[in-house]
Specification:
- With 618 residues, the chain is of the alpha+beta class.
- The protein has three domains: 322 residues, ATPase, nucleotide binding domain (Nucleotidyltransferase, domain 5, 2-Layer Sandwich); 108 residues, Substrate Binding Domain Of DNAk, Chain A, domain 1 (Sandwich); 88 residues, Up-down Bundle (Substrate Binding Domain Of Dnak, Chain:A, Domain 2).
- 38% of the residues lie in helices and 25% in strands.
- Strands 3, 4, 5, 6, 13 and 14 form a six-stranded mixed beta sheet that branches. It has a five-stranded mixed beta sheet with strand order 20-15-16-17-21, sandwiched between helices. Strands 24-23-27-28 form a four-stranded antiparallel beta sheet, with no helix packed on it.
- The longest helix is centred in the last third of the chain and has 31 residues.
- It is elongated.
- It binds adenosine-5'-diphosphate and magnesium ion.
- The site of adenosine-5'-diphosphate has 21 residues, from helix 6 and helix 8.
Length: 618
């Protein structure tokens, strides 16, 4: 039960806790709430100012922190102390971002490439989580100032492509900012909610959410039916956004003035200045035909026509992502009922036109594309507050989740594109007598061998009471909560001992690597299947050798000398086959061994049964 307080000033009842919706963007962030009276979502802003808070953090010589517009003002003068696009670094290692290192005009530490990135400012080091927490703290303070009430609870949105580690990092940033993060919501899901989609029970629609922001592009195909809101597929490019449109202009201007790009690398201040000019030009060209300005006395000119020619390939890239997303969702463009435009970059006429043309109908752009995600987050917050019980939100897992089994095989518990929240469980057993521990290694990926996938976590289930091999029942269960965070539990069912782990921010995959992994799973499908078959044959062969060995040790007295010799040579042949890369040979030799042992195994069994029938101990 939510506590209800009384506002002494007005004498009215008030709910004591407000839950805000936050869009923590790469370029801009903002906070929204559901208006208590109108029940409409509104973005919070101070009088006469924008609701957008640039996701920029500035540190002065004394370590004081400034966030937003004030920090953005330092981008040119103090690039080393002014951190932008920290969201791009969330949950990443230096290895993941090094090919884009020149993008960052501040110092991203290149230490051990396995570690999560850190940013150095003066003699201090900040993690992306620290940096994001400064932005979130600013939003929290802004909300408190405007609402004149403490704000401690929030719903924060993340791109649909964010993996477990990145979601966890976002959650941690919220915590660090003093916010209880009630839910991490995918941005397209929030955007759809802001358009009122998915709020009515008998509504049935397929929606494409096209989100072109400052640094990222996401396309998501969603489906609503029976009041259930489901993400069918996602696609995109985390290194494609408004910044690239700016860079296209920068390149053009450099060409025009006969400068080369090396000069940009050497002069980071000039690079920043010309980049800001380019953005100004781009925004201006969204509603004008030509732009003219100057920098350091040099004239900078560009027309809409030239601009559109320059950026056509970028727009085309987004369209091929749309094609892939539709294919994954099993839909055609004509099946899409609504196309929702998200992100400041969708204000460009060339984007709107191209996307309308692609989907064959006008796009939905009535809600401010800068605010739409935060507005949806506020609606989600309202749903979480229990004010709208009809709505259920579903998301999907981007990659399969599983554990390592015998021979390094990937055993998938939750397949790719499963709805979340989700749970799955499977039983395993020991393969050695008296085995007291079992290593549970958790992987994410589409390949058959775990070595080709990404390791998320590893832990040992210890203290299994001594039992013969095959007797313990170890149930491994996966639980993905609504935020997409995974909890893995292992429990030995006979003894009740258990152990669990929450998958935490770790070494992370770049999005290119994620794409590559999906692609690899297709191109290597054939050899993967062959490898799996071989590994399985070997494992079976080894198990057969073990059980035969044990049987013989126990029942030697019941076997003839001839049987003993035949068995020994068949075992040797199987042992040899296992060392070779021929699964069929392994199966053949296993069958031969089985054929030899079957008659005496039956004999021993019959004998045991007849003994038991006579009431004697076996
Ligand atoms: P993010 O989600 O990455 O934080 P936003 O949705 O806030 O990004 O979009 C920021 C991007 O939108 C910037 O690249 C900005 O230049 C661009 N943008 C904003 N307004 C316009 C406009 N009118 N025309 C073209 N681009 C715009
Ligand atoms: Mg955005």
């Amino acid at each position: 039960m939510a506590k209800i307080g009384i506002n002494i000033a007005t004498g009215s009842l008030q709910q004591d806790e407000i839950i805000v919706g936050i869009d923590l963007g790469t370029t801009n962030s903002l906070v929204a709430i559901l208006h208590p009276d109108t029940k409409k979502p509104i973005a919070l802003k101070e009088h006469n100012s924008s609701s957008l808070v640039p996701s920029v953090v500035h540190f002065d010589a004394f370590g004081n922190v400034t966030v937003g517009e004030a920090a953005k003002a330092f981008l040119i003068a103090e690039p080393q102390n002014t951190i932008f696009s920290a969201k791009r670094l969330m949950g990443k290692s230096y290895n993941d971002v090094k090919q884009n290192a020149s993008f960052f005009s501040y110092k991203v530490i290149d230490d051990n490439t396995e570690n999560l990135v850190k940013v150095q400012v003066g003699n201090k080091f900040y993690s992306p989580v620290d940096l994001s927490s400064f932005v979130l703290k600013e939003l929290k303070q802004r909300a408190e100032h405007i609402l004149k009430t403490p704000v401690n609870k929030a719903v924060i949105t993340v791109p649909a492509y964010f993996n477990d580690a990145q979601r966890q990092a976002t959650r941690d940033a919220g915590k660090l900012a003093g916010l209880d993060v009630l839910r991490i919501v995918n941005e397209p899901t929030a955007a759809s909610l802001a358009y009122g989609l998915g709020l009515h029970k008998d509504e049935e629609k397929a929606i494409a959410v096209y989100d072109l922001g400052g640094g990222t592009f996401d396309i998501s195909i969603l489906k609503i039916s029976n009041g259930i809101f489901e993400v069918l597929s996602t696609n995109g490019d985390t290194y494609l956004g408004g910044d690239d449109f700016d860079n296209a202009i920068v390149k053009y201007w450099l060409q025009q003035s006969g400068l080369n790009e090396d000069e940009l690398k050497q002069n980071k201040e000039f690079a920043q200045a010309i980049r800001l000019k380019a953005e100004e030009a781009k925004i201006y060209l969204s509603s004008n035909e030509a732009f003219e300005s100057q920098l350091n006395g040099d004239k900078l000119i560009i027309t809409r026509k030239i601009f559109e020619n320059l950026v056509q390939p970028l727009v085309d890239t987004t369209i091929s992502c749309c094609t892939s997303a539709l294919k994954d969702a099993g839909l055609l463009t004509k099946d899409i009922d609504v196309t929702v435009m998200v992100g400041g970059s969708t204000r460009m006429p060339i984007v709107k036109e191209s996307i309308s043309k692609f989907f064959g109908k006008p796009v939905n752009d009535t809600v401010n594309p800068d605010e739409v995600v935060a507005l949806g987050a506020a609606i989600q917050a309202d749903i979480l507050a229990g004010n709208n019980k009809d709505v259920l939100l579903l998301d999907i897992t981007p990659l399969s989740l599983g554990i390592e089994t015998m021979g390094g095989l990937m055993d998938v518990l939750i397949p790719r594109n499963s709805k979340i929240p989700n749970k799955a469980a499977r039983q395993y057993t020991t393969h050695k007598d008296g085995q007291s521990g079992m290593k549970i290694s958790v992987y994410q990926g589409e390949r058959d061998m775990v070595k080709d996938n990404r390791k998320l976590a590893e832990f040992n289930l210890t203290g299994i009471p001594g039992m013969p091999a095959g007797l313990p029942k170890v149930e491994v269960s996966f639980l993905i909560n609504a935020d997409g965070i995974l909890v893995v539990k292992a429990k030995e069912l006979r003894s009740g001992i258990e152990q669990s782990i929450q998958v935490k921010a770790q070494q992370d995959l770049s999005d290119e690597a994620l794409e590559k992994m999906l692609l690899d799973s297709i191109t290597h499908a054939k050899e993967d299947i062959a490898t799996r078959a071989l590994v399985e044959a070997r494992t079976e062969g080894e198990q057969l050798l073990e059980t035969t060995e044990k049987f013989i040790q126990k029942n030697a007295t019941y076997l003839s000398k001839e049987e003993m010799m035949q068995t020994a040579s068949a075992m040797q042949a199987l042992q040899l086959a296992i060392t070779m890369d021929d699964k069929d040979l392994i199966h053949t030799k296993a069958k031969e061994l089985n054929d030899i042992s079957r008659p005496y195994a039956e004999r021993v069994m019959d004998h045991a049964i007849s003994l038991a029938m006579k009431g004697k101990a076996v």
